[in-house]
Amino acid sequence: MEYALKTMGLSKKYGSKNAVDDVNMTINKGDVYGFVGKNGAGKTTLIRLVLGLARPTSGMFAFFNGMNINEARHRIGSLVESPAIYPNMTAAQNLTVCCKMLGIDVSAIPDILEYVNLADAGKKKARDFSLGMKQRLGIAIALIGNPEFLVLDEPINGLDPEGIVEVRDLILRLNREQGKTVLISSHILGELSKISTRYGIINNGKLVEEITHEELLQKCAISTVIRTNNPQKAKEIVTAFLSDKIGTPSISINSDGALVINNELKDTGAVAKELFANDIIVESLSEKSGELEDYFIERMGAGKN
Fold first, then answer.
1. Mind giving me the DSSP string for 171-196?
2. Nearest to residue 296, comparing CAs of 206, 197, 216?
3. Are residues 163 and 259 in the same domain?
4. Under a CB-based contact definition with an 8 Å cutoff, are residues 44 and 80 in contact?
5. What's the confidence (pLDDT) of residue 305?
6. 204 and 275: one domain?
């Protein structure tokens, strides 16, 4: 599979602090890669490294199956921290200046403004924009030259709910309609989970885990926990019972000796009835739903000193 970005042992040290510590990250072409971490975890530092805004202490990175940053720069658009805009200019004037600096034709500006929902901003100066409008203008600047890969550092940070929805929907459209690969960093977990196809979780400069959205949902799926007087026999009975209804079920016995059914059950009462019919005493039966935010928080706390 073609990757948009791969890092290999990438590290950045400031004095005695490892801001980025031996990170091996892979962002595949077509991903919306949610880069998750607390403030100060190393997200922005890593982004600055791969964009050539800081020099690594050690390690390597490459774009598009082997390109260095200079070769790939024209295929990458970025928004790092707050957007660099001219406050006394309109949205169109800001884009015009950026196009001229980059030697890019200005004819695409109306389409870009339409796409980021700033076509109606007219003569309004950027200094009078809402924070959400400024973020969308920053993304518009990143879209100059029609890059394949967008790197967006905390684009929803500080936005009100309406602004978050606007930026979120824009990122989804860029990915689904234009096929752009997106790296988006944030600590707002609920919003990332609505748009990301894969995640990288960073803590204290270390990449703790990379996980797909589907794998995350499986880890946080609803499960049924049943305590009985005979867990092994109960497992055999429930496996046979559910196999006729949902196919091969996912059932295990946890460290406390409880039966854990990792499939969503529509009728837990029928399972209990089947156990009773086979002389198994059901001591308790409960449903457990893993929360995405709890999972992220647990992983982001891993590896603390």
1. HHHHHHHH--EEEEEES-HHHHHHH-
2. 216
3. no
4. yes
5. 38
6. no
